[in-house]
Amino acid sequence: MQHGDTLILILLLGLLAAWAGISFRKWLYEPYADSFQPVRMTDYNEVPEDDDVVELLIGAGFDVVGGKTKIPISMTLNQKEELYSRLFIDYFAEKEDNLYLVKVARERKPLEMTGSAIRDMLLVYSLLVPEAAGVLYVDMNGRKIKQITFHIEVFE
Fold first, then answer.
1. Is the separation of the CB atoms in 90 and 116 below 8 Å?
2. Distance CA 40, CA 37 (A)
3. What is the full DSSP assignment across the chain?
4. CA distance linking residue 94 with residue 63, whole number of Å
5. C-alpha angle with apex 123: 120 to 129, nearest 5 degrees?
């Protein structure tokens, strides 16, 4: 090998290493494009037996078809920082061939029955499962089921 061949080989190896480093860094910090997938009908978890909520739903004519389901969420902040969270759907229920997502009221985070409070707390679930007919909000203290259906108008 001559002196010029060694220099060209070193330059080529340097360019290859720089390209590999830039590609790896871009891959590392770039959000995954196909990370959002709506919940599918096969994503149900098993329904717990001997559950008060299940009994209330069955008594109201609903068939409980799925139990608590966790939906992981990842977010990128300022194109750098990865953040993680999750959403929980307490149950899936059906009535007259309509699918409903079920959220159970929590004492530490009660839901005000106002349009903005319902939107802020429950709209995300309706958007997550577009084929759902609505959300059932179950209040075990009052033994009540509130059926919430969202109607969204999009202006162009």
1. no
2. 8
3. --HHHHHHHHHHHHHHHHHHHHHHHHHHHSPPTT---PPPGGGPBPPPSS-HHHHHHHHTTPEEEEB-EEEEEEEEETTTEEEEEEEEE-EEEEETTEEEEEEE-BTTBPPPSSHHHHHHHHHHHHHHSTT--EEEEEETTTTEEEEE--------
4. 5
5. 150
Distance in angstroms (rounded) separating the CA atoms of residues 69 and 48? 12
Nearest to 66 by CA among 106, 100, 98: 100
Angstrom distances, CA of residue 9 to CA of 12, 13, 22: 5, 6, 20
Distance CA 16, CA 13 (A): 5
The overall pTM is greater than 0.90: no
Give CA–CA dist 79/118, Å, rounded: 31
Q: Give the separation between CA 125 and CA 25, rounded to whole angstroms.
A: 34
Tens-place pLDDT, residues 27-79 = 777 655 555 455 554 455 667 666 888 889 989 999 888 888 888 888 888 88
